[in-house]
Amino acid sequence: MKTISRNNFLKKACFTGICMCGFSSVALSGKSESADQSEETPDGNQLLIQTWISNLLSNLDQELDEEAKRSVLKSCSMVHYENLKMDDVLLPYIGNLEGFIGFLEEKWGWKVEYNKTEKTVVADENKNYCVCPMINKDNENKSAICFCSEGFAEKMFSVVAGVSAKATVISSIQRGDERCIYKIDLDS
Q: 0.85 cut: is pTM over it?
């Protein structure tokens, strides 16, 4: 039997098509969601996947340092990004950051502040629940999942702005905060 290191297992598990990024529920719907709307109850298969992911995240929290978790989960976000065909979604906004911000506010219901001087964006998902479809909302908080969202946001803003972007979750429901908020540094 071939042995595989824990890090290689985690990377392969993330690339099997099970994405842990929280953007799908709004990206797929194309609709704005109100801040008090809650997620639907998962079916049996979704519950199985969410429980499996929850267990994986617990093990990641116990076994890996923060930078290792960040690296693994950010790479997983690209599976979700590609699955949602985000390059097609973003195409009309390439080079038009303010237009993209308008899209995020209108279609996804986000609240966004853009500081042109400092080249920073603060994006508030403006929801009182975690939008990630990969985790069971009834389980304990799984803050490692937020690194996937950082990777997804970095990719989106890099594509639109045409510069390297660095996203950091500054507030997260999974970390006990009221909403998920990201800070994106452009041209980092």
A: no
